[in-house]
Amino acid sequence: MRDGFVKVAAASPELRVADPAYNAGKIVDLIRKAEGIGVKVLVFPELAITGYTCGDLFFQKSLQRAADDALLSIVKDSVSSDALVFVGYPYLYRGKLYNTAAVIKSGKLLALVPKKNIPTYGEFYETRWFASWSDDNTIVKLFDDDVILGNKIIFDASSPSTLAIGCEICEDLWVPESPSVRLALNGATVIVNLSASDEIIGKEEYRKNLISSVSARLAAGYIYADASDGESTTDMVFTGSNIIAENGSILTSSMFRNNELTVSEIDTDKLVFERGRMNTFSSEDDDYAHLSVSFHEEETKLTRRFPTHPFVPADEDERNSRCEEILTLQAYGLKKRLVAAHASKAVVGLSGGLDSTLALLVTVRAFDLLRRDRKDIIAITMPCFGTTERTRTNAEKLAEALGVDFRTINITKSVLQHFEDIGQSVDDLSVTYENGQARERTQVLMDVANKNGGIVIGTGDLSELALGWATYNGDHMSMYGVNSSIPKTLVRYLVRHTADTMSNEASLVLYDILATPVSPELLPAKDGQISQVTENIVGPYELHDFFLYYMVRFGFSPRKIFRIACDSFRSDYSPAFIKKWLVVFVRRFFQQQFKRSCLPDGPKVGTVTLSPRSDWRMPSDASSDAWLKEAEAIEA
Hints:
With 636 residues, the protein is α/β, with parallel strands linked by helices. The protein has 20 helices and 20 strands. α16 (541-553) crosses α18 (575-591).
């Protein structure tokens, strides 16, 4: 369970209604199967030992004794299993039947968790057979062992694991005050649900939405095991709709898969991190019983996949919708700033690259929202030593297609004069050579904005802020940074989305901009071509965005980031290559915080932003030793 990953499974065994011996055999088969793949938490459906649809047969002593015998056989046959197993079982206590989850670990029955909310509406008629448990925990004698009975129980894995498991049963999920709420507030990071939810039109999607919502609200993992199609179809149909969720995301789901395991890995460390950063997530002490359970230490083989581009939805329809939403948020943020600043103009430095293109597209949207003339947008290209014909021409064509005021201000003479003033040789292609041009460009933009009563629209993106790939008080500065929470991988999709939806002339220019290598164009061109390709210097942006997302959003350590990056990018990059750029990312992220500490205003549009006024507060002189040592020690 290293790095917080816990392999879990939901199972809908093949069953025969009212045949506990047969059902026990199928349950044990799945326990054996789970044992073989390292499952640590295994959940079976509600009343899986007997079947949920036994009706008045639940009152029959023959069925009750057969259920007891079946449970005992399951307990004995699970001695070799390292999984914590939850299996549905009808338990007779003081003359009343209770719908319970029998909790088994390594050949020992640990607890019985009774269902709290018993439905009698629609197709359900459970109060005919089962009583609701509303008392405190108690100790009962079963199979000559003392067993805790109650629904105020949390199963805690051995320290330092962050795995803690709470249990509820079917209807408990659907009520306004589900047991899962108090279980989570008392420390449970994973909730299991043993269910027998019949299938009707539209219910599958509703069920997924409900479980996703609950897991998000509780910042918890959720394992939902549903009754199989072996249940009686006298009045209902069951499909074994098994679902595993984590903090609002459905990790995996399945239907009509009898005698199979629905498997994934829940990251309990991530859940604890999420709860820790939410000061509104309280920690309670309601006198719950905490039972310690231990697991064998072993590597958890991951079956879940982490997307290579976590900022970008994989589904095309969802991606297009997300792009449109982001562009709208950016535009509305800028619209408000233009009005508040009483700005008559907006000034954009247009290089012909992706970031400045996106900034101009957003500015155009903002002006359209204000119903203002696009000619009040001043797009300026400032060629110097490294500017290529391709980028300069694309800047001009784009400005013309969008109908904005386009100006060319060649800064070569100004930069040469500046170099002469400070004693900088034009043959010394150092950082001073590059930054001198970047700061001159910013000065031009600021002064043009002052001259015309406007504001400078920043073009720098989130990835550049994370790496510090910006000239301090150069392109680092503006009066409103519309791209400040947009990572480079997403910038590309936003521009492409716009290209796909615009007129032919504008779209052709945008497609060529998309095909142009990312470059600040601060070093002399070679044979008219870009000589300074950013990703050759700082590494692939898709890797850095991946590192950024999991480090900032979820607090993953370098070792954990490396582990999931190697899995996600296994067909693209070698482990050694990933480690190399991970070390670079960690080093630059810490070294460049001073640039993020004085960022201009800009709209937050996603869950990750580095604004010092909202999401990210970090001292500029913080030591990176702990992170760097861990990254450098990785065996690649």
